[in-house]
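Service request form, structural biology core

Requester: graduate student, group of Dr. S.
Request type: structure prediction, single chain
Budget code: on file
Notes: please return the result as structure tokens.

Sequence provided:
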Amino acid sequence: MESQVAGRVVFRPAAVAAVAGLAVFVVGTAGESLIIRAVHGDRRELEWLSDAVVSMAVTGLTYLWLHLRASRMRVLTLRQEQVAINEQLRLAAEIQRGLLPDVPQVTPGFRWAARMVPASRIGGDFYDFLQPTAGTVVAILGDVSGKGIPAALILSSLKTLFRMFARETVDPAAIAEGISAALHEEYAGMPYATAIVARFETAPGRLSYVNAGHPAGYLLRNGTVTAPFESGGRPLGLLPKADYRATDVDLSPGDIGVLVTDGITEALEAGPITLGQVLGASWLRLAAGRSPAEICEDLLRAAAAGPGPAGAPEWQDDRTVFVFAVEAGA
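Core staff response, request fulfilled:
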């Protein structure tokens, strides 16, 4: 059966070409005769018509062949350029992943987990984690305005600035003010970044944070949200000068803190399952001995299944979760 199919594939173009050639010959001959009769000319004197038709046909075929050749060269060039762009995007994605730190699972008094899932190869979400002293941890969760490469360009600056200011001071307000001023000086307000900058202390257990235009974080105590980390300032880098005020929260053993980007909140806002329900179920699992990393996975799975904002069927965004659990030693 394959040989018959192959035979038809080879025979059909040849037959079509032969029929087309014969048809052109017949139509051309008939057309030439009609023209000669219409002008009442001598056949021998009007033989130039055939030469003209053949010349035009050769000219047309030559043009088409050259046009096809040039088109093939353009397609080949575009493919090569696309391969180069894909390779650059792959390297950029690897560099971006390298900017994210390995969050330690355990430090004295706390357990941690963080996870980012970019909407495309390159994302605009970011987190970092620094432990300047044995009893103090400073962290940031940020989301750069825009998407793709423009948003990713600011991430390396954001990490450098965070680490620079976090080594000078552990005050979240001072860190946020320093980052904001430096970003605005460099980018003049576009792009900017929303963020939560937080300091964790173990003696006694305490959280001090600044929310710079970022979605609220959540503190769960006995399965109930007790102190949402609400907005307390302008996004970082949006204005030439922005003042921030830190908020202090006393922590107790068993508390769970969850920080997310808007890729999580917006994915769930129009869905059948709310963020609060996911957090409540996650708290029960953690109380049963599960780790903060599993809370990250719970939220990411729920957001991946969420419909996103109402009226935006093509919506997608980076999704990032940062979770901490307070241990008995805090």
